[in-house]
């Protein structure tokens, strides 16, 4: 009696025909494996292409960040004036606010420069004397030898330093170009971003259009929620650090608070690095006791950020486990440096929210 054509052959028939028996678990694993490899190849190619146009990608990302921040402001102003004027007012107001903050920080640092030089020289001499005493007992000429070696190293690598400075000038031009492109994109995203997205969706077929619409709404909701949340967390950290450093008498309190604000955009590791720099400044200017207080401040700010701000502010927008956040930050930093560390968490959050939205649409009623 022969086996019907619509039924698979039995293991006995496969063995009699010479075909090797493959367990079902291995077949399933192989099916998943080649699909995972295919997806990995596509992701690698996509990131390779983005790597070739990373400046454009960074400009678009910054444009989306600016749009997420200023679009609600432009919508509020549009109730009292024409929308083009509202968008222009929001963009110009944001630029004035940022430039004013940077100018205030620069003026503060310039005013304190003369006093800082004396404080740092005195502080370094004090640190040298402490290291010469027990329990370190360093020889008195250790730092003199170190200074001479640093001087020889700088003189021997003078050409390299000059070329690095020149490349830094070219990098500054690239940064200004990226910022200009980001603002240009933000203007049109803020003014007519919904119409641009609708045009993209209209180019698709009906089934794909519905899925892309759902995915786009989920992605933008998560991205704007993350942007607003991380801004609130960064501003809170900067205010707390600025008040603490000012109360302790640490110089450059305002620039260090601005550094803390910028570093907070890198979750988990940004704030400790910024506060470590503040601890070094406190050690050189105010001594070991104030530096230890700043180190304690690192712990306190980390506890407030990890157990209060992130759960309250970010949980409704970014539902990611801390392990996932840590892996995303480290992976982004390894792949693309500081930019990758900043972009990694919102990218992972957006991908996860899109997956959940599409899965909920597939599981729910049509």
Give the class from helix and strand content and strand pairing: mainly alpha
Give the biggest sheet.
Answer: none
Mean pLDDT: 79
Radius of gyration: 28 Å
| Element string (H = helix, E = strand) | HHHHHHHHHHHH
Question: How does this structure look, described?
Answer:
It is a single chain. The protein has twelve helices and no strands. It is mostly helical and 366 residues long. Helix 4 packs antiparallel against helix 7 (158-202), helix 8 packs antiparallel against helix 9 (253-263) and helix 8 (206-248) runs antiparallel to helix 11. The mean pLDDT is 79.
Write the layout of secondary structure elements.
Blueprint lengths: L10 H6 L7 H29 L1 H24 L5 H29 L1 H20 L9 H15 L1 H45 L3 H43 L4 H11 L6 H17 L1 H27 L7 H42 L3
Helix pairs in contact: 2-3, 3-4, 3-7, 4-7, 5-10, 8-9, 8-11, 8-12, 9-10, 10-11
Short description, anyone?
This protein has 366 residues and is mainly α.
Features:
366 residues, mainly alpha, globular
